[in-house]
Amino acid sequence: MKFKIHLNFIIQYFLRDLKNKYSGSFFGLSWSIISPLIMITLYAVIFSNIFTLKLGVDDSVFNYVNYLCIGIIAWNLLAEFINQTLNIFRLNSNLIKKLNIFKIHLLISSMFSSLFNFFIILGIFFLYLLVTQQNNLNFNILLLIFVVCVQIIFIFSLGLILSSLNVFLPDVEHFFKIFLQLWFWMSPIVYPITIIPEFFKIVLSFNPFFYFLKYYQDIFVYKTITGIFTIELLIIYLLNLIFLIFSLFFYNKVKKYIVDEV
Amino acid sequence: MNILKVNKLSKYYVIHGGKFEKFKNIFFDVKEDKKFYAISDISFDLNKGEHLGIIGKNGSGKSTLLKTLTGVTHPSNGSFDIKGKIFSILELGLGFNENFSGRENIELSYSLYGVKKENLSDYIKDIIYFSELELFFDRPLRTYSNGMRLRLAFAAAIFSKPDILIIDEALAVGDIDFQKKCFDKINELKKNGTTLIYVSHDINSVKSICTKAILLSEGKLIVLDNADYVCDLYLKKNFKNTNLIRNIKKNVEIESKENVSFEKCKIKRVFLSYDNIETDKFISNQDIFINIHVNFYQNVKPTVGFMIKNKFGLEIFGINSDHLNFDKSFYKNDNIIFKFKLKNYFAPGIYFLNCGIFEKDKNNFLQRNMNNLSFEVFSNRIVKSTKIEGFLDLPVELDCISKK
Question: Which of A164, A169, B193, B257 is most exposed by smallest CB count within 10 Å?
Fold first, then answer.
C-alpha cells in the first residue's frame, strides 16, 4: 500500500514534469531527440568520411553509423541522468525545505524522464534498422534488457552518490561537467576499440561504462554473443548491485543533513 | 490520548567551518563548542483535540521545532512520536513545483497523502471554492502572489482533514476577510477534534485560538501552560523589543473559553459611539462612549467593566462599575445598555476593547467578551511630525513665566 502510494506519486510527478517541460514549445517532445540525432550525424560525417575507420568487421558506412548510434544512445542515458541530478537537491531546495518528501523520489523521477528519452531514441533506431533492412539481428537482442537494467543500476547509484556529495562539495558539479566530456572521449564510442594502443586498454578496463558499451556494440554491430546470460554479465551485475547497496547506504547516512545545507 | 509525544528534542547546526567540514561532521563527532543549538531538550505532550500555540522572539527556535515535527529536518537528539496524519503550512510551503499549476500541486500532495483518485474531484471543488482561486487554479504556481499561495496552502491543509494541523505564521499574509474565513474554518476544525499547532507573533490570535501555549527562548522551553497565562508572561517580559505584526482583527467571532452560562444574562452586543453615532475611529480629547447591551434573564446585581489593551496586548486602562459606585439590581427580561463615557486620552494607535460582566459580591464571571472590538485613535494635533511618546496623550498646557 505504502509502496503503491509512492510509486503513484513518482509517476504522477514524472508525467506532469514531462508535460510542463515541453508544453508551450513549438517542437515539443522532438527536442529530446534532436540533440542526439545531430550528434550522430556530425560524428558520422566527420569520422566515416574524413578519417577512414576500421571496425574490424563489415567496414561499410552503414555499419559505422550503427556503431555510432548505439554508442551515443547508451552514453546519452548516462550523461543526461548525471547532468540532471548533479544539482537536483539544490534546485529543489524550495521543495525539500518545506515538505516532508522523500528526496530520493526526485532522482527516481529524473531517471524516468531519462529513460523516456532513451526509449524514444532507441525506438527510432530500431525503425531505422528496419527501414534500411539491416534487421538481421538474432535473439541476442533479448540481452539488451539485461544490459539496460544493469546500466540503470549503475547510473542511479552514481547519480545518488554524486548528487548527495554535491550538496556538501559544490566542486563535484563543476568537476563532473568537465569529466563527462573526458569520459566520453575515453570510451570507444566514436572510434573503434581496434585503434586503441595496447597500454591504453588497461585504462579502458577501469572504465565501467566500457563494459555496458561493449555489450551494446556486441548486440548491434559485432553480433558475437551467443546465449542470453554470460558469466561476465553476472559478475557485472554483482558488482553493480554492490555499488547500489553502497550508494544507498551512503545516501542514508547523508540524507538527514542535506536539507540543512541546500 | 497523547497524539504527539516530544521527548528531549534537540537540533543543532554546526556554524563554524565550511561545507567540507560539515560533510566531515556527518561521519565524525562534532566538538561541543562548534554546535549551535536551535532547539534544545524540548519535551511536551499533546492530547488529541488540544490546541497548542508556540510563541517566542525571532530566532527562538519556533520554526525549527515545527520543521522537525513535520519531518523536514531531522532532530540531532531526542525523539518524537506522532499518531495520525500531519499536515503543515510552513512558510506558505505548499507546492511541489513552481511550474505546476495549483491543481497539479494539490493532486500531487494529496496523492502522497494517500487520497484516492476517485475522491479527488470532490476535494478539489471544495478547495477552489474556499481559496477563491478560480482563474488561477490552473495556472503555474510561479504566477501566484503570496496571498494566493496562502489561500491555496490553507485550503489544501484544511480539506485534507489532518489529525494534526501545523500553521506557521501563515495567516499574516491574507487580507482581513480571508483571515476571518480562516479563523472560522479553524474553529470548525477545532470542533471536529483536530489537534492544532499554531505559531504566530500575533499574540491575540494565539490567545483566542489556543488552549495551551509554549514559550520558547533561545531554543529552550521556558514555560508550558494555558495560553492566556503564557501570552501574558511573554508580553510582560519583552513587549518592547519584539516585532509584532500590526494585525487588526475586526469582529471575529471568538468563543470564550470559560464555561459561561447564559442563564443569568447575556451580552448582546458591544459597540462604540460618539455623539450617538456608532464609530470605531476617534480623535484625541473627544469623548468615547462604550455601549454594552445586556439582556438579563434572571434577577442579577451586576458589575460591568471593560479593559482597553493596545495592539501589543498590554493593558492600558480598565475600570468597572464598582469603581464608579454603581449599585443597582436588574430584573428578569430587563434589556439594558450600559453606557460608559470616557475622555479620549489615548495616544494615536489601535486599541482593543474587552468587557465583562460579573455577579457582584460573588466574583464569578457571567460573561466575557474578548478582543473582538478594535478602535483607532487619531491625533488632533496640528504638528504631526513628531510622535507622542508613550501610551497616553494627556491634555498638557505650557506656560512661560519669567522670574525676576
Answer: B193
Residues with Cβ within 8 Å of B146's Cβ and at least 6 positions away in sequence, in order, are: B92, B173
Rounded Cα–Cα distance for residues A119 and A76 (Å): 11
pLDDT tier at B255 (50, 70, 90 boundaries)?
Answer: very low
Find which of A100, A104, A169, A261 to mutate to test the B interface (most B CBs within 10 Å of its CB).
A100
Q: In Å, how far is A97's CA from the nearest CA of chain B?
A: 6
Length of chain A: 262
A119/A36 Cα distance (integer angstroms): 13
Residues β-bridged to residue B270: B292
Sequence-ordered strand ranges (E) for B100-255? 164-168, 195-199, 212-217, 220-226
Interface membership of B22 toward A (CB under 8 Å)? yes
Q: How far apart are CA B305 and CA B368, in angstroms?
A: 10
User: CA-nearest residue of chain B to A168?
Assistant: B19
Render pLDDT for B123-132 as a digit per residue (tens, 0 to 9): 888 888 888 8
Tell me the three cell numbers of residue A190: 566514436
Q: Nearest 5°: phi and psi at B9?
A: -75, 130
- Per-residue model confidence as pLDDT tens digits over A159-195: 999 999 999 888 899 999 999 999 999 998 888 887 8
- What is the bridge-based pairing of β-strands B364-378 and B281-283? parallel
